[in-house]
Design brief:
Keywords: Carbohydrate metabolism, Hydrolase. The chain has helices at about 15-25, 50-55, 80, 90-110, 140-155, 215-225, 290-300, 320-330, 345-355, 385-395, and strands at about 160-165, 170, 180-185, 195-205, 230-240, 240-245, 250-260, 265-270, 280, 315, 335-340, 360, 380-385. It is α+β, with helices and mostly antiparallel strands and about 400 residues long. It is globular, with a radius of gyration of 21 Å. Bound molecules: 1,6-di-O-phosphono-beta-D-fructofuranose. 1,6-di-O-phosphono-beta-D-fructofuranose binds near residues 318 and 407. 1,6-di-O-phosphono-beta-D-fructofuranose (FBP) binds near residues 187, 283 and 336.
């Protein structure tokens, strides 16, 4: 089944009528004749990324056809992957994911559009947040936020949305089973140079035990859940390819947008971050503001004098989703050692993905997912990466940058 064409104009109504019809059909996807599903031509180079993999996920053997008669050599869309024939994450989650995908396809179109370049510039629209200077939201952040809010509202599945761009969480639907936390467009300051950006999201169950509280109070409590309670998380990387990487608590899987059909196709099932990388990723212009432990760690690994006796290389895109994506692929550590990134919107969802890929997310001392958020916009140092690299880094003890003078670029 194909998803609708993405309107470039961010203010266009959501969802289009045809989209509505499709949503009603979604929970019954498995009942449709399989001939209706999109099947790209078989590609030898992608062998192993298709339904054969999915049958492993659902516990099947290496058969060439599933019980429903699906061609197990075909490619697999995200919706099929999570649906009844795949991971079976539940109808509510399938509908929510469909809306998140739709929103991210609109954002992908927006960041790539020649008609929206002014949206990447600083602040010509008024934001609702309190950040200023280089942290102030750009129009593109605000439009992306609106796109996500509109999709989550339309899904009918979300009780609360908490966004990096809003001062307070927004209560959407009393009986929505989920809570969504999001950074709608991370790295947007890079947009003028066409550097990759990303959307980050985390999904929790609604806390039914606080249903009786006033909206403001229950919205906040639902949004301040510890990362260990995440039921799903993901990011969408807007780069040379648009990649949606997600986890529902059983592995991390990435899907690449096929622009010809609008489908996210499974391209990286069960990502395993190498236990060791040879790359460190940090803004090392801040070297003289770092604590002694972090300086020693970086000096050691770049000379090839660490536990892994290879000279490390530096890579720093300064766009969190892109830096994490590379780290998941190649290993190493992606870090932002000062109190800058947000626990609720960035650190928790990305740590969940890193852990599900066999890596680790830490603030330099503790596991991110075990930290109880006390403030919605709480900031902290963030280190994500390969297990052995992270253990070595943390053995230096003093790796959190406490000096945070505010940087202009
Ligand atoms: O300026 P620094 O410390 O290198 O921080 C860069 C990081 O900040 C970010 O731009 C996010 O900052 P914002 O949340 O303020 O947009 C990340 O994409 C990037 O990893």
């Amino acid at each position: 089944m194909q998803t609708p064409t993405i309107p470039l104009n961010p203010s266009s109504t959501f969802p289009p009528k045809s989209h509505h019809t499709q949503l009603k059909l979604l929970p019954k996807l498995h009942l449709l004749p399989q001939s209706l599903f999109y099947r790209p031509p078989k590609m030898a180079s992608l062998g192993g990324f298709g339904f054969g993999v999915r049958s492993q996920v659902v516990g099947g053997g290496a058969s060439s056809s599933s019980s429903s008669g699906v061609d197990t050599n075909g490619l697999c869309t995200l919706t099929e992957y999570v649906g009844k024939e795949g991971m079976n994450v539940g109808d509510d989650m399938v509908v929510l994911l469909h809306h998140i995908q739709y929103a991210c396809k609109r954002i992908a179109a927006l960041v790539a559009s020649p008609f929206n370049s002014s949206l990447g510039k600083q602040n010509t629209l008024a934001g609702t947040g309190t950040a200023s200077g280089r942290d102030a939201p750009k129009p593109l952040d605000i439009v992306s936020n609106e796109i996500i809010l509109s999709s989550l509202r339309s899904s009918g599945k979300v009780a609360v949305m908490a966004s990096e761009e809003d001062d307070a969480p927004i209560w959407l639907t009393d009986d929505g089973p989920f809570v969504v936390v999001t950074d709608p467009l991370d790295g947007s300051r890079n947009i003028d140079a066409s550097i990759p950006t990303g959307t980050i999201f985390g999904i929790y169950n609604r806390l039914v035990e606080v249903d009786h509280l006033p909206k403001e109070e229950k919205a906040l409590l639902n949004s301040l859940q510890a990362g260990a309670r995440l039921v799903a998380a993901g990011y969408v990387l807007y780069s040379s390819a648009t990649i949606l990487c997600t986890s529902f608590g059983s592995g991390t899987h990435a899907f690449t947008l096929d622009h010809s059909t609008g489908d996210f196709i499974l391209t990286h099932p069960s990502i395993k971050i190498p236990p060791r990388g040879q790359i460190y990723s940090v803004n090392d212009a801040r070297y003289f503001d770092w604590p002694e432990g972090l300086r020693r760690y970086i000096d050691t690994v770049r000379q090839g004098k660490g536990r892994y006796p290879k000279k490390y290389s530096a890579r720093y895109i300064c766009s969190l989703v892109a830096d994490l994506h590379r780290t998941l692929m190649y290993g190493g550590v992606a870090m932002n050692p000062r109190d800058h990134l947000r626990l609720v919107y960035e650190a928790n969802p990305l740590s969940f993905l890193a852990e599900q890929a066999g890596g680790r997310g830490s603030d330099g001392k503790s596991r991110i997912l075990s930290i109880q958020p006390v403030k919605l916009h709480q900031r902290l140092p963030l280190f994500l990466g390969s297990l052995e690299d992270m253990e070595e880094l943390e053995s230096y003890g003093d790796v959190q940058q406490r000096v945070n003078p505010g940087y202009e670029v």
